[in-house]
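Subject: Protein record for review, amino acid sequence with backbone structure tokens
How to read it: Take the token row as a discrete description of the fold.
Enclosed: The protein record, placed directly beneath this head.
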Amino acid sequence: MEWELIFLWVALGLLTLTGVVAVIGLVLAQLPERLVLLGMSMGLIFHTLSLALRWERLGHGPFISQFEILSSNIWSLTLFFTWVYARFRLIRSLAGVVIPILFLMMGWLLVVRHGDTFLPPTYDTIWLYIHIGLGKVFLGAALVAASLGVVVISRVFLVTRTFFVRLPNDNSLDELSYRFLALALIFNTLMLISGAIWAQDAWGRYWAWDPLEIWSLINWLLIAMALHVRPLFSPPPVWGGVVAILVFMVAFLNFFGVPFLSTATHQGMI
């Protein structure tokens, strides 16, 4: 366990330093792009080693406790944003928004108990990996859409407007946010379908209206509404930014709140 935790703290330290560099670069409008990419990549390597050691020691993936779920989602969100950072060069300054969000999650991780867990029999299925993998892509797309929304809203205020001068205009960011929300809807839909198949296999029902299922449906309806309202009514980019942030907040609650407050079969599952 010692090396497992050491690798985790190294990964979190690297991501923290990368976040500091990204925020400074955002404020000074001089982002050291290669340094930020190197920091995220190195953090991912050490975090992967930590997760792999825990997986090998316990015999199952990071799917059960709040510690495991937080850790694995910090890893997957970092991986998703690293791909976005490498793929979309025009929005690399977004690192100054995304990494601080991950930093808050890391702070939470530090105070969560990291004890050992066991895998329930109902989790011993390929649908577990399909369901969770789809959910991680969904949350990553929602995070990027919300971060673009934060930029659009921040530009309303004079004091923060100059921080994002290197990013495209509001309409372009709103369009990109819309596309990431569409990606989130696709993977959210697939996540719900795979979850229903898993539920039928594990508990003999596709849907039971437990709290997590209800909130997942609310999240899906919220994204679907946002995607339909935009082409029908052409709201201003600020409205799109608010909705994107709301989508991520509900998704965050769905991943890290409801499963641990509920006593239903979904408890501690995402």
Notes: The mean pLDDT is 89.
